[in-house]
Amino acid sequence: MAAPALARCVARPGMLPFGQTWGRAARRPPGPPPAQRRAFSNNRVLVELDESAGVATMKFKSPPVNSLSLDFLTEFCISLEKLENDRACRGVILTSAVPKIFSSGLDITEMCGKSTEHYAEFWRAVQEMWLRLYSSNMVTVAAVNGSSPAGGCLIALTCDYRIMAENPKFSIGLNEAQLGIVAPFWFKDTFVNVVGHRVAERSLQLGSLHSAPEAHRIGLVDELVPEEKLKDRAMAVMQQWLALPDHARQLTKTMMRKAVLDRLVAHREEDVQNFISFISKESIQKSLRMYMEMLKKKKS
Ligand code: CO8
Fold first, then answer.
1. Taking a C-beta distance cutoff of 8 angstroms, is the pair 88, 39 a contact?
2. What is the pLDDT of residue 40?
3. Ligand 1 centroid, distance to 48 Cα (angstroms)
4. Which of 66, 137, 145, 175 does the annotation list as catalytic?
5. CB 47 within 8 A of CB 79
6. pTM of the predicted model, to two decimals?
7. Which ligand 1 atom is the nearest neighbour of the CA of 107?
8. Residues 6+ apart with CB under 8 A from 217
9. Cβ count near 272 (within 10 Å)
10. What is the pLDDT of residues 127-153, one digit of tens each?
């Protein structure tokens, strides 16, 4: 388990300072040109960096469903931090290496029958993932190549741009209410910032999972493309965003997102305690257990 590394991640303030420079990939020190492509991988996340384009692709590879376990979140944060600190990288495309699933959201087993200390550690890791991604200096594009409920949808919403495979069997949304739980305020804020208040209110209350075409219609995703074109389209969008000077884009992003980020940073510990007291309730534990049983029954 990479807990010490996460502790290092968490020790830094949630909101990363925005860079003073732009065109990082273009401002290399003199000397022989570095390798054009680099890859690093840990158990759950694979990262490939195309240095000539200044773009990394981060692939989730935690079968069967890329659930966001503590280990996954830890590896995600470490990978993102590495890219954030890499002058060769200006943008990251998030996608899945698991067929038909982008991410099934938070790992429900991390929220069932565990200790208070475990819930606190897990929730801090969920916060950290969101804080780092929402405040990233890099251009972030979600290439949603499968279903993406709850925490999976949050990852997509947290990016700058979302492209989804146009398969109507794939669904996306914040379906927490269907599990008998409530999306935290910062999930809600992120959702509102993408789809607007009315759509978010209805979708959150109903715990809706939207098919890909519906997700596009309500603005939850920016565009749909055939699955085989998703990768190329994500790269084309990335190049369009990277054509702008980094500093102007980054400062604009800060301006748009700062209030929502600051709100969690200011109430981070309170949010952890709220999560613990909510998730520890026997009625909530019962709902989660029943939901897991329902998932297993659906299979048989
Ligand atoms: N966590 C843990 N295990 C999961 C999860 C999950 N989120 N999702 C699926 N699994 C497990 C299944 O139980 C199953 O396990 P097993 O093989 O042991 O039976 C295995 O993964 C495969 O699942 P399926 O057979 O269902 O796979 P399918 O390909 O048929 O379907 C889906 C994939 C569509 C992703 C489906 O599994 C599904 O709908 N999963 C549930 C998704 C969901 O509702 N996630 C919500 C999580 S909660 C969250 O993210 C935000 C919580 C905020 C907390 C706020 C509290 C205050």
1. no
2. 86
3. 27
4. 175
5. yes
6. 0.91
7. 1
8. none
9. 18
10. 999 999 999 999 999 999 999 999 999
The neighbouring-strand residues paired with 100 are: 146
137 in ligand 1 pocket by Cβ < 6 Å?
A: no
Q: Are 131 and 79 in contact (CB under 8 A)?
A: no
Cβ–Cβ < 8 Å for 119, 284: no
Locate all alpha helices (DSSP H) within 163-245, ordered by sequence: 185-195, 197-206, 212-217, 230-242
- ∠ CA 153-154-155, rounded to 5°: 90
* Type of residue numbered 194: V
- The count of other CB atoms within 10 Å of the CB of residue 204 is 20
- Name the stretches of the chain with pLDDT < 70: 1-35
**Protein residue with its CA nearest to atom 31 in ligand 1:** 65
Measured between alpha carbons, how far is 37 from 97 in angstroms, rounded to an integer?
A: 19
Task: Output the six-digit token pair for 88.
Answer: 């060769």
